[in-house]
Amino acid sequence: MEGKPRSVALALAVVLVVATTMEMGLVSGAQGICNMTRDELMACKPCISTVKPVEKPADVCCTAIAHADLPCFCAYKNSGMLPYLGIDPSLAMQLPAKCSVPAPPQCK
């Protein structure tokens, strides 16, 4: 069971990286990814940052995760680039649990 939340969390972290690139203007489009807007994705980033991460996710982050397409995030679960992009994988793995969002059964 423990592997499923980790997969979703890592996938979420990768999507947050995409949001970061959108913020920097490298990717266009305001629609976001996996049913989360760019603003919702960016609201989650402070919790998984490698620099001064915050402990508690913002309400907008948890609300967005609760309505996100979590199986979509599973497609990003194996990225090894997270630490290089300022994302702490350990913190990313904790984000769904901090938001009380269960992992979907499709994520393995």
Automatic annotation (TrEMBL):
Pfam families found in the cross-reference section: LTP_2 (PF14368)
Keywords tagged on the record: Signal
GO BP annotations listed: systemic acquired resistance
Residue span, Bifunctional inhibitor/plant lipid transfer protein/seed storage helical domain: 34-107
GO MF annotation: an example: fatty acid binding
Superkingdom of origin: Eukaryota
Record SMART domains: AAI
Keyword rRNA-binding carried by entry: no
Leader sequence residues: 1-29
Protein name (record): Type 6 nonspecific lipid transfer protein LTP602
Source organism (scientific name): Elaeis guineensis var. tenera (Oil palm)
